[in-house]
């Protein structure tokens, strides 16, 4: 009789295990398309005079020419001072230097989607009532 293995949740997986997952997906991509997606994580931080992080942005780009921005945050004491725009510009410029032609992200309605629209992003999808009564909004931009 064949042994059936059961999934087990891992709240804080080891970096090595996450890397194994990434490599397994990439191996399959190579089998099908003949090449790696070349996913590259990228992060920028803004630090104050005391070297404390006051903001940051995190994303991933690949050889398909897409940047995915998965996190942007600025400490509440430093908001509305241009740091979020600066972080977005740094991320997009780095992605363009690495061959990206497009960017996409998602945000929840209370997380200032209008900020991304001001930067040239356009909504392409929306999930209603994603977080309580707030919608999740998906946006994209040509770089």
Please tell me about this protein's structure.
This protein is α+β, with helices and mostly antiparallel strands and 143 residues long. The protein is built from three helices and six strands; from the N terminus they run αβββαβαββ. The protein has helices at residues 15-33, 83-97, 113-118, and strands spanning 40-47, 53-61, 66-74, 102-108, 122-131, 134-142. The longest helix has 19 residues, at 15-33. It is globular, with a radius of gyration of 18 Å. The termini are far apart.
Describe the global form. globular
- E-strand count: 6
Unreliable stretches: none
Percentage of residues in strands? 35-45%
What strand line-up does the widest sheet have? 1-2-3-4-6-5
Taking the sheet with the most strands, its summary is: 6 strands, mixed
CATH class division: Alpha Beta
Please name the CATH architecture: 3-Layer(aba) Sandwich
Q: Radius of gyration, Cα only, in angstroms?
A: 18 Å
Q: What is the element string, with H for helices and E for strands?
A: HEEEHEHEE
